[in-house]
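Async update (no meeting this week)

Hi team, since we skipped the sync, here's where things stand on the single-chain job. The sequence we agreed to prioritize is pasted below, unchanged from the tracker. I ran it this morning and attached the output directly underneath so nobody has to dig for it. Comments welcome in thread, and please keep replies under the output.
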Amino acid sequence: MKKEDIRRSVRASKCLLSEADRETAAERVFSRLEELAAFMMSDHILMYHSLPDELSTRSFLGKWAGRKRFYLPRVNGVNLDILPYDRSRLHLGSFHIEEPDGDNTVSVDDIEMIVVPAVAYDRKGNRVGRGKGYYDRLLADSKAVKVGVAYDFQFVDEIDAEPHDIPVDIVITQSRTIILRRSH
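Output:
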């Protein structure tokens, strides 16, 4: 399926979700994430700060912030910098996403797990992002376990992947956990 068709379809499906649907889906997805051995064993986890149409990460970050070392991305030109998560040190950055302040960036090599947002995933772990390639550039240099999180309708049969597209190792939706590649 073509990426633009997937983006259009997913956008339409998201418009149909109630606030209760969104909250229930986020609770289920992140409960499944907590059950992963890879999550239990990871101390340094790159999350994302959710946009209104994405599975909300706010409760999850709040719940685990004292026990795990979370990081958030910050747009820097065409790349993403990785900075420690501190709820009190966020600002509205590129694309109206809350991003961390400061200059204490860390290397992607220090990250053990990356929770990757996307528009859609397929059964091979291919993903459709928002079209700018930020995560593909970041993931290309990472040995971390890559976990995609999504609503059930964001899991599609097949995505027309391109050579620069980096797949995820695990996809979690509210009704299933699909392990595509074993941890590194």
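Quick observations from my side:
Residues 104 and 110 are 13 Å apart (CA to CA).
The mean pLDDT is 92.
Reply here if anything looks off.
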